[in-house]
Each structure stands twice: as structure tokens, then as C-alpha cells.
């Protein structure tokens, strides 16, 4: 069946689309009429020198692609659905050193090592320190007179601190780590006036910093997580360069995602006051997952078909790219009752905000849920009367549902 309501040439990865809104009506139209649809691209806009990609919009199909890495590779064209038209192929290929863009067996080996960082015990060990940080962040925002930007004053800080705590970055070095992380993730939006070169330089500096850290610990092991990952050579440990790319991945994967979940969550609460009242009264444990479903900070990733295959009644050819749209899956009425309602008591909540299952499922999920819980508990206690002062200013991006600024006030 054709898709009458989808404008000709509409591309879900066009950064101008997410700059204005998440295209929920267009996703709904595709799910209804053509759940797997070819989106043509001309002029190398995404950097892959090809003709476009398949948009996969139903919850069941996003799960299917995610859980069949033998059919859908993360490495052939990486998981990033759009770079820019000027990128060199070498620069795309260099991204394959990051866990997110690996296929088995390399992925299995590296993931087995790095998941030591994310054991329930390791996350629990961070909880009290992160709680104190969350309380301090909320208290200093409360003490500001007049309106303030929720993104910079509240949402940014905890995700950065959490990653620094997780891998034991010394307090004195955190400012420069934060600066590199912010520059790396900001260069898609012209407003930040950060060139791609500066973004690349920051990535290189961060990797070099982490590699030095690894070399130090190898020479002089301590009782910390870096030593556990790198201290002995061999199959069960990371090389220094692998550790460098792991830290780079955390700085990208763990920062902007959680920051945007927190910002969208606050905006959702302030535009759904009955949910905010309910939260303040009952603090339901289900709230964080609903915030991630509602926000879906990562709108999409991609895979590349390793062989001819079929999906949603369409023939996918070997080498074609397949975009998995988590934001669409998270509004699929076949799975979610009243999917457009923000309901912090939703249970069960099988959203795909952390991925569609399978080998790449978000490693930082428990940490992210903990951070979201801690920050909203702290904000609800410190600033129960918080109110919106302006509309969110959105990030221009091909695949991140981002907010740059959200003006709020306690008075
Ligand atoms: C609300 C916050 C977050 C969201 C929405 C999110 C989302 C995602 C998604 C969609 C994936 C890809 C899943 C797939 O391809 O199947 C992913 C992977 C990953 N995430 Fe998260 N993430 C969040 C927070 C974090 C945090 C806090 C960390 C760590 C500090 C983290 C570390 C990772 C890593 C290392 C991977 C790659 C796993 C792999 O390829 O095996 N994430 N995340």
C-alpha cells in the first residue's frame, strides 16, 4: 500500500527534521501503510556513497533486525545512520574501532571484557556518590535567582560525573575530559560553531589521555576498574588503544543520551502537571523507563544487510542499509496502549530506547536508569514548584533527539 501522507522526498535522517520535532505522524503513517520503506537519498548526503536506506518502523521489525547480527551487520557501514556528505570513507572505517560498530566475534570478545565495568555491584558502588552529586546539583540550581537553563545547570552534570566516577578519572582532570566530550558531540549543530576538525581533535586528545591512563595502570596496577580492564596482556584484557576507544565510546554513548533523557523528562513533567504531582507524591519506580521511552534520545541506528533477505514483505539486498527507528517502535500501538500518553506508571514497558535487544543492547542501561531516578528525586525535593519559562531549543542532528536549552524557574 502506498503512503499517501508521507511527503515526497521526506527523509527521517535529514537534520532539519529533528531540529524541529520528532516525526511521529510520519512514523505512524509508515507503521500503518508501509512499515519497511525505501528512503532514497541523492548526492551522498549521508556519506555512504549509496542510494538510500530502508526505514524500519515497527517494534517487532526493529527487534528482529537488532537480534539477527548475522543478517544485519553493525560494522559494514557502522551503526551511525548519517555522517555528512564530505566525510572520507577512511573516517567512517575508523569508527569501527568502537564497540557499537563491531560485529562478532570481535564484538563478543571486547564486550565480555568491558561489561565488567557495568556489573550490578559496580553500579551499586557508585550509588551513594551519585546521590550526593544529584542533591548538590539540584540544590545549587534551586539557589539561583531568576530563570535558568535546565540543560546546563541540571541535566549535563550528572552523566559526565557518572562516567568519570565509573572509570576513576581523577577530580583534577575532569574539567578537560568534560570539555573534550562536549566538543566531540556538539559539532553537528552550526550554532555551536565547533568545526568537525575541533571535534576530531578533541576525540584524539581524549583517546590519548585514556591510553596514557591505561599504560600507567599496566605499569603500576591499582585496585581500580582501569587496572581490571588493562593490567594483564592477553585475551581477557584490553590493549591500551582498545581502552582509549572504550572511553571515547562512553563519552559519546553515556553523556548526551542521558542528558537528553533528563531534559525531555523534565519537559514532559512540566507539560503534564498531573504526572509531576503523581511523581512527587509516589515516586514510582517505573518512571525512569517511561522517561526513556518518551524521550527516545537515540532516534535511530542502522545496520547493513550481509546477504539478500526479507523484512516486512520487502526484499532487502546484500549491502543495503537498514535504519532501525527506535522512536517509531516506542510509539507502536501494537505494543503500547495509548502510546502517545506520558504515563510514569506504565508497566510493563517493553520500550526499545536502549536498543532492540541482541548483542549491542545498551551496556549503560542500569547506570542511566539510576541517574534518572536520582536526579528526578533530587529535583522533586529541592524544586517541587519548578515551572517552564520557554520552549525547548532543539539540537540539529540526524539521529539524536536533543535539546540544547530549556529555560525554567523556581519562582
Ligand atoms: C538514557 C540514556 C541512554 C540511552 C537512551 C542509550 C541508548 C543506547 C542504544 C540505543 C544503544 C545501541 C543498542 C543497539 O544497537 O542494540 C546503546 C549502546 C551502548 N550504550 Fe547506551 N544509552 C544510554 C546511556 C548509556 C550510558 C550511561 C552508558 C555508559 C556510561 C552507555 C553505554 C553504552 C555502550 C557502551 C553501548 C554499546 C554496546 C555495544 O555495542 O555492545 N549508554 N545505548
From TrEMBL:
It holds the Pfam family p450. Belongs to the cytochrome P450 family. One of its GO terms (molecular function) is heme binding. InterPro entries: Cyt_P450 (IPR001128), Cyt_P450_B (IPR002397), Cyt_P450_sf (IPR036396). This is Steroid C27-monooxygenase. It comes from Streptomyces caeruleatus. Keywords: Heme, Iron, Metal-binding, Monooxygenase, Oxidoreductase. The keyword Lipid biosynthesis does not apply.
